[in-house]
Amino acid sequence: MQQKLAINDGTPVRTAPWPLWPQPAAGTSAALTEVLSSARWSLSGPYRGSESFERRFARDFAEYCGTAHCVPAASGTASLMLALEACGVGAGDEVIVPGLSWVASASTVIGVNAVPVLADIDPDTLCLDPAAVEAAITPRTRAIAVVHLYSAVADLTALRDIADRHGIALIEDCAQAHGAVYRGRKVGTFGAAGTFSMQHSKVLTSGEGGAVVTDDAGLARRVEHLRADGRCYPAAAPPVGSMELVETGELMGNNRCLSEFHAAVLVEQLKELDEQNARRARNAAVLDELLAELGCQPQRTSPGTDSRTYYVYAARLPEDALVGADIAKVNAALSAELGFSVVPTYRPLSLNKLYDPASRRRYAISDEHEKQLDPSRFPLPVCERVAQRSFTLHHAALLGDASDVEDIATAVRKVLDNSAELGS
Ligand SMILES: *Cc1c(COP(=O)(O)O)cnc(C)c1O
């Protein structure tokens, strides 16, 4: 049907508001008030006779993930750097990361003086392609930092196998996948460590925040020290009024602690995560069908995924539609129809203006190191192809009911039917 597109001043498919994110959990105000009057706003404050919210969240989240240990941290970025260092990654080492991800996937690796090796992705899951990982391994490879991107779980069976065969660490960056289940277990439990972000946009959030989960007591203890200036919790609580953290000097660290306010928010938000994940998955299933009818290919998850979560909903345009069209313009047209931000995937890290190690003097360690960090040395044809053909929506779009996702499909149909207006 010919209809003028909203981006060209036509009538939009939808003007009704969308669900907002974040949404405070029921107990949040009470928990924050408790922290305010507790005289303890950080774990690096005196013990006041009750468990810190930070420890409470660590216990709750470890139980949720099914791991023995959880160490909260200030951000996902901090968590990933802590996990890398706790796995022994440092100067001169290489870490394999996906070529399509948030910039932190690579910037955290250079942050621990190692070299990110960008590997290509699987075109259907948008996660690391195990064959590309295998091909990227060198004698200097120390770890694989896999990302479960958008709403898919990476091929953990294959990646775990590669890591084991080469004797390198597998770190799962679960910043986009809190609660996803693969072969009967939560993500974050398949490698040496799993890391999480609780930044504003994520499905579990306190505005800023993060965590490392692991079954390895030694690794957890190293993470603890690394994130609290070389201090850790004692085996037994100290007298009220004295500092709880003990200065062991086992391992030098930096302050990457999560505040008590953030931890209190997370304790409450975690209680609502499963219900929200289920709601998003129900709506995504409806949207998958509607978009498949239009010839689009929704992002797939790896075989073996029992339950996926939706941080971002991603789909590829039909093969024969909008060929040659500017993908930014296609996404802008969808945004205009919906009154909701629809954006292309991340730019591949080899072409991403946010990933520019040469802009930071701290990484100019040697000419050779600088050459190693040059992202343009990694060819990423699948990342580039996918990035030119995809659209994505933040998970807030999935928090309403089925009529919301019907609007999304209607907008996609309208843009496909009127592609001539976009110059293709
Ligand atoms: C958000 C994100 C991070 C970084 O988390 P912050 O809390 O923003 O520092 C790292 N990796 C991925 C895949 C992310 O999506």
TrEMBL record:
Listed GO biological process terms: polysaccharide biosynthetic process
Q: Which GO terms describe its molecular function?
A: pyridoxal phosphate binding; transaminase activity
Active site annotation, chain numbering: K202
Sorted keywords for this record are: Aminotransferase, Pyridoxal phosphate, Transferase
What cofactor does its activity depend on?
pyridoxal 5'-phosphate
Question: Which residues does this entry mark as bearing N6-(pyridoxal phosphate)lysine?
Answer: K202
Family, according to the entry, reads as follows: Belongs to the DegT/DnrJ/EryC1 family.
Q: What is this protein called?
A: DegT/DnrJ/EryC1/StrS family aminotransferase
